[in-house]
Amino acid sequence: MQKRTESSHRELILGIVRRSDRHPTADDVFMSARANVPSISLTTVYRNLRRLVRDGQLRERMFGGVSRFDAHLEEHGHLVCLECGAIGDLAADGQALAQSLKPAAPSWQVEHVDVELRGRCPTCVRKAERGAYTRAAPRALITSHKSRAPSRQVRRETPRRPARSPPSDSAV
Ligand SMILES: [Zn+2]
Ligand SMILES: [Zn+2]
Fold first, then answer.
1. Mean pLDDT across 128-133
2. How confident is the model at residue 96 (pLDDT cuts 50, 70, 90)?
3. Distance (Å) from CA 82 to ligand 1 centroid
4. Cα(94)–Cα(91) distance, rounded to whole angstroms?
5. Which of 1, 69, 81, 154 is disulfide-compatible with 86, CB 3.0–4.6 A?
6. Nearest bound ligand to the CA of residue 128
7. Are residues 43 and 56 in contact, defined by beta-carbon separation less than 8 angstroms?
8. How close is the Cα of 41 to the center of ligand 2, in Å?
């Protein structure tokens, strides 16, 4: 009975990681697993994740000091978003890359290459572009609308600015 439960838990956990496109953490897997099996514990999730990694059905990788699980078993690189932490897969020929780096490390025998490109994901690029628009537009509107009356509001903002420099007092 118990064995059957354990293997069905393992199937569930493997399925969760396989369906996820975000290289989930153990906590992420736990949250999804609990939605299916409310009685499942974090310990069970950890134990099965470790077993799946040991059996070669999942890969474990560290991103920014956080352990994540990957069901994509072929050699590949990763794209990491510095803004939201999204992680995408990237086809990368590690051996070719190692060859191109070899002249710099001639006496090293390279066995493994990790390719990680960091930047902004498409969602964050779009958000930043939209943010630039929305931030610019209302300011233009406010100045044209309120150019007469709310000069007080503008004044109120002014004394706040010098307040930024003294925090060195509190730091000492
Ligand atoms: Zn992002
Ligand atoms: Zn991956």
1. 82
2. confident
3. 7
4. 9
5. 81
6. 1
7. no
8. 26
Read off the pTM: 0.67
148-157 long-range contacts (CB < 8 A, ≥24 apart) are none
Q: If you measure from the C-alpha of residue 138 to the centroid of ligand 1, how many angstroms do you get, rounded to a whole number?
A: 25
| Ligand 2 centroid, distance to 67 Cα (angstroms) | 12
- What is the residue whose two structure tokens read 């697993």? 33
Q: Are 92 and 76 in contact (CB under 8 A)?
A: yes
Length of the chain: 172
What's the 82 CA to ligand 2 centre distance in angstroms? 16
DSSP 3-state of 38: coil
- What is the DSSP secondary structure assignment for residue 58, as one 8-state letter? S
The closest ligand to the CA of 78 turns out to be 2
C-alpha dihedral sign at 62, 63, 64, 67? negative
| Segments of 15-171 assigned E as strands | 59-63, 66-70, 77-81, 87-90, 116-119
- pLDDT tens-digit series, residues 46-79: 999 999 999 999 999 999 889 999 999 988 999 9
